[in-house]
């Protein structure tokens, strides 16, 4: 594995992701959830809640956070960190927009 | 024990109601009380009619004394009895229905009548006044047809009526005789700001306008002004002032001028006859605001209970307008004169105007618009005649500015002296509230209202009372603990549901904007709730918000702990067949489904299905005739049945057939929380109907309808709604009950919790005893089903929400290295 090179991969267009929703990327064994906020920012987290591995991509997106569908932990889209009294961090990935193209960094 | 005296009260408004409260407190056993009320109802808070008109409150919210209060105090209340004669010699009164009551002491509280301008056409149908609940009901009825309303009179009442009618969707014009609005309470500058704000809300204002006539053939069609302007109108509301009702007293030979003449002990010219409220004249004045009326109530109660020292003392009263979002406050005398000075602060951008009128270094009047936080502080200094020369320079900036204290809104309240008046309506001062909080361990607004009456009338001092609770209790006071829907708003579910209807909010962004949500797009608690309320209230207009649905309702399957899903097809009434079972078996094999389970609701659950397989699974199930079982929905789930008369030797009715009918009629409907039903064919109850949300027990003579059971976190047997004779009646009653719950339940509130909150009797009354109400619930349910009964599975098999079920991209292994 090459640890130095940053590898930006185009994964689709902004239109592919519903506003206040998420889509999944399958990267080998790893599932990555790509989120789109109300103001069209995009974020990528591993699709695993730090609590009990719930699929964050299936949660409700609100104000820069996603609420896990299994036990309602609220996870920051930007940092992957659990909000409030809960503790834990989901792995996050750099993601950026080039025009309407969504690029993910692996 | 001495024999009780007889007290007769004519009128059941707020003043006599308050008088009786004081009397029962001071001398609970002194009198047998009889009340004659010309209105056919109990005592309610007349000041709050405007929020009822605008839809922010319901009539039930503004009742002061419910029927129980009268029973508790042994009061004989004649509702809808107008008194037509007082015989002072015989000491009796007679009602129009011929009821005669003898008295030792009599209290006349006949209130006032709205003044009707005697222009031609004033008696046409469609011309209303604004005085009691009947007027509000009449206005609401007229508002249903939308149309145009003209309000004559730009004073407090007229403007509140105009704002309420506008909220109800009418096109509203206000006609006012004077050059600026509310000229008795506001100076021209504040009147102008108010006019601007009302016009911004779409209310047309015509000042310096005099009504010439009201035109129409059989009912009002338009109104013509002196200058020839004609304004079309389907409704005309006259709110130009009130006249004391003194006719009855005059006929009885009592002294009456403009009102019934009373002394400062509230006694009329006959010492055994008292009068109070808007019908009286005291020192040449008549009164319309609530604070002096409540003072009269206290004085009269003192005299009736033997305390002859209490006297009515004239005090100034502050005024506020009860239109949501408009803040104005005025008190005292604010006319210009040579010996007066004024201090004015204007902030055009923020829409703030503040004016203080000083005489001899004392505040004698104030008008505040936009920011009214310092109103009570100014008013307190006005009443105490405080010399303000020391702080004159910074006075207008308010209390917080004095001494440079931090700009904390509660600091102003903290700095108020103990004898500062907080609640003007009820004359409650700060010290009375804080000591009640401490002494009685009060923890919330309702407690304070119950114990001190503060903020229990017009409610405009609610914010101050809450701040006092905060100051007194510190962190122990959490106003939003029970009330707020979530941290995005301070409003409760009840408030939000009411306001969605009242303001006709039809999208989630509209709700968040209008109700001032604190977050940009809500949270996982409020969004699904709002989505449900909108689906329920506007079934034909609202477009379901996919992203505000919990994942189960978005993909129409139940998420499991490992991220796979379970699928439950509908089996009507729990009946199935070999064909259906074979189709299920084939699906299980084809998709390698790891677990198959029979559920508690008599359905078959296939567990462990991968999300991407869902559409294909549904496609195969659909071919076999299955639709979604909605086992994931906050909506109708299952109707469990027993075999009834088809097979069972004890069965009394066709419970299976009835269960299937109910399920086929009600499937697809969304409800506040899941709704599980059952039909048992006899009282042996094999379908366990008596722990369901709604259950039917068949008996020989017909059907018992049960509801509000629970068998989850709570265990609770059902309550009986009532019994009916036919399957058709079961359908109508059950559907009406479900609709009532749909319309009133809070999101995630199961039917048993809702029923506890609303009261079983109220539900029985509306569903069993009121055929009109039942029918209207039924019809609204039927209407909403037109839009709800679409099988979500077949929709998705045809490609709806396709993106949900496939990854956005699958990266090649080399890209991931």
Structural features, described:
The complex is a heterodimer of chains A (106) and B (817). By secondary structure, chain A is mainly β. Chain A has one domain: Rieske Iron-sulfur Protein. Chain A is 0% helix and 42% strand. Chain A has strands at 8-13, 21-27, 30-36, 42-46, 60-62, 65-67, 74-76, 92-93, 95-98, 101-105. In chain A, the strands form 3 sheets. A 4-stranded antiparallel beta sheet of chain A has the order 2-3-4-8, with no helix packed on it. In chain A, a hairpin with a 2-residue loop joins strand 5 and strand 6 (65-67). Chain A is globular and about 35 Å long. The model of chain A has no long low-confidence stretch (mean pLDDT 90). The longest helix of chain B has 18 residues, at 727-744. Chain B is globular and about 95 Å long. The model of chain B has no long low-confidence stretch (mean pLDDT 89). Chain B folds into 4 domains: 5-111 and 244-304, 3-Layer(bba) Sandwich (FAD/NAD(P)-binding domain), CATH 3.50.50.60; 127-240, 3-Layer(bba) Sandwich (FAD/NAD(P)-binding domain), CATH 3.50.50.60; 493-549, no CATH class; 550-805, Sulfite Reductase Hemoprotein, domain 1. Chain B has 28 helices and 41 strands. Chain B is α/β, with parallel strands linked by helices. In chain B, helix 23 crosses helix 26 (771-788). Chain B starts with a strand and ends with a helix. In chain B, strands 5-2-1-9-21 form a 5-stranded parallel beta sheet, with no helix packed on it. Chain B has a 5-stranded parallel beta sheet with strand order 11-18-12-13-14. In chain B, strands 23-24-27-26-25 form a 5-stranded antiparallel beta sheet. Helices cover 33% and strands 21% of the residues of chain B. Chain A binds chain B through residues 1-2, 7, 9, 11-12, 16-21, 23-28, 30, 34, 38-39, 52-55, 58-63, 65, 67, 69-70, 72, 74, 106, and chain B through 519-524, 527-528, 546-548, 550-552, 554-555, 559, 561, 563, 803, 807-811, 813, 815-817. Strand 2 (21-27) of chain A pairs parallel with strand 41 of chain B, so a sheet runs across the interface.
């Amino acid at each position: 594995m090459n640890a130095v090179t940053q590898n930006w991969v185009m994964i689709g267009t902004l239109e592919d992701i519903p506003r206040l929703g998420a889509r999944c990327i399958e990267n080998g064994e790893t599932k990555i959830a790509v989120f789109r906020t109300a103001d069209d920012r995009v974020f990528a987290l591993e699709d695993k809640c730090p609590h009990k591995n719930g699929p964050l991509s299936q949660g409700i997106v609100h104000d820069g956070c996603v609420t896990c569908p299994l036990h309602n932990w609220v996870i920051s889209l930007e940092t992957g960190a659990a909000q409030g009294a809960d503790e834990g961090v989901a792995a996050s990935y750099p993601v950026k927009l080039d025009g309407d193209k969504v690029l993910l960094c692996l | 024990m001495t024999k009780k005296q007889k007290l007769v009260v004519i009128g059941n408004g707020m003043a006599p109601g308050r008088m009786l409260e004081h009397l029962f407190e001071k001398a609970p056993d002194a009198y047998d009380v009889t009340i004659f009320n010309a209105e056919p109802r109990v005592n309610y808070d007349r000041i709050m009619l405007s929020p009822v008109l605008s839809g922010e409150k319901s009539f039930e919210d503004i009742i002061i004394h419910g029927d129980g209060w009268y029973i508790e105090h042994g009061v004989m209340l004649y509702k809808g009895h107008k008194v037509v004669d007082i015989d002072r010699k015989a000491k009796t009164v007679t009602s129009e229905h011929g009821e005669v009551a003898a008295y030792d002491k009599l209290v006349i509280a006949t209130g006032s009548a709205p003044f009707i301008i005697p222009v031609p056409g004033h008696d046409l149908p469609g011309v209303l006044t604004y005085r009691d609940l009947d007027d509000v009901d009449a206005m609401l009825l007229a508002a249903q047809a939308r149309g145009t309303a003209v309000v004559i009179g730009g004073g407090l009442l007229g403007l509140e009526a105009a704002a309420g009618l506008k909220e109800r969707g009418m096109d509203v014009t206000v006609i006012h005789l004077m050059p600026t609005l509310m000229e008795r309470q506001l100076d021209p500058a504040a009147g102008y700001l108010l006019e601007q704000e009302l016009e911004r809300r779409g209310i047309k204002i015509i000042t310096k306008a005099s009504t010439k006539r009201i035109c129409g053939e059989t009912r009002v069609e338009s109104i013509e002004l002196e200058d020839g302007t004609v304004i079309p109108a389907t409704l005309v509301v006259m709110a130009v002032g009130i006249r004391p009702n003194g006719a009855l007293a005059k006929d009885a030979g009592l002294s009456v001028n403009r009102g019934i003449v009373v002394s400062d002990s509230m006694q009329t010219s006959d010492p055994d006859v008292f009068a109070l409220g808007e019908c009286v004249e005291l020192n040449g004045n008549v009164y319309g605001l609530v604070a002096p009326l409540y003072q009269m109530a206290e004085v009269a109660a003192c005299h009736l209970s033997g305390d002859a020292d209490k006297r009515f003392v004239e005090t100034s009263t502050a005024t506020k307008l009860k239109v949501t979002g408009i803040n104005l406050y005025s008190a005292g005398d604010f006319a210009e004169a040579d010996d007066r000075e004024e201090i004015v602060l204007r902030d055009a951008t923020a829409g703030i105007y503040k004016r203080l009128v000083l005489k001899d270094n004392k505040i004698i009047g104030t008008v505040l618009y936009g920011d009214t936080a310092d109103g009570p502080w100014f008013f307190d200094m006005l009443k105490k005649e405080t010399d303000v020369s020391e702080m004159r320079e910074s006075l207008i900036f308010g209390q917080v500015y004095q001494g440079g204290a931090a700009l904390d809104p509660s600091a102003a309240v903290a700095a108020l002296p103990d004898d500062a008046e907080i609640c003007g309506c009820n004359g409650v001062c700060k010290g009375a509230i804080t000591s009640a909080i401490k002494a009685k361990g009060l923890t919330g607004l309702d407690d304070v209202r119950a114990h001190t009456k503060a903020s229990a009338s017009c409610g405009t001092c609610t914010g101050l009372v809450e701040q006092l609770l905060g100051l007194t209790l510190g962190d122990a006071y959490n106003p939003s603990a029970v009330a707020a829907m979530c941290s995005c708003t301070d409003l409760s579910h009840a408030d939000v549901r009411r306001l969605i209807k009242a303001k006709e909010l039809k999208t989630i962004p509209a709700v968040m904007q209008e109700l001032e949500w604190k977050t940009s797009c809500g949270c996982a608690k409020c969004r699904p709730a709002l989505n449900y309320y909108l689906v329920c209230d506007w079934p034909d207009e609202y477009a379901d918000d996919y992203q505000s649905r919990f994942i189960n309702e978005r993909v129409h399957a139940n998420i499991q702990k490992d991220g796979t899903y379970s699928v439950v097809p509908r089996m009507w009434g729990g009946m199935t067949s070999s064909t259906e079972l074979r189709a299920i078996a084939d699906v299980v094999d084809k998709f390698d489904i790891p677990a198959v389970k029979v559920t508690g609701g008599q359905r078959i659950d296939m567990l462990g299905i991968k999300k991407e397989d869902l559409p294909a699974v549904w496609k195969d199930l659909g071919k076999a005739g299955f639709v979604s079982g909605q086992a994931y929905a906050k909506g109708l789930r299952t109707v469990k049945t027993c075999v009834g008369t088809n097979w069972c030797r004890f069965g009394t009715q066709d419970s299976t057939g009835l269960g299937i009918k109910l399920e086929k009629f009600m499937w697809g409907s969304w409800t506040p929380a899941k709704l599980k039903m059952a039909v048992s064919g006899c009282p042996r109850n094999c379908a366990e109907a008596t722990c369901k949300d709604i259950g039917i027990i068949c008996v020989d003579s017909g059907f018992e309808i049960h509801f509000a059971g629970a068998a989850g976190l709570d265990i609770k047997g059902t309550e009986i709604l009532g019994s009916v004779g036919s399957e058709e009646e079961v359908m109508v009653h059950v559907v009406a009950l479900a609709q009532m719950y749909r319309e009133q339940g809070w999101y995630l509130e199961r039917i048993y919790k809702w029923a506890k909150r609303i009261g079983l009797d109220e539900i029985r009354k509306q569903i069993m005893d009121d055929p009109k109400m039942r029918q209207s619930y039924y019809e609204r349910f039927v209407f909403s089903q037109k839009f709800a009964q679409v099988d979500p599975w077949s929709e998705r098999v045809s490609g709806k929400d396709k993106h949900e079920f496939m990854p956005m991209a699958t990266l090649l292994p080399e890209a991931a290295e």
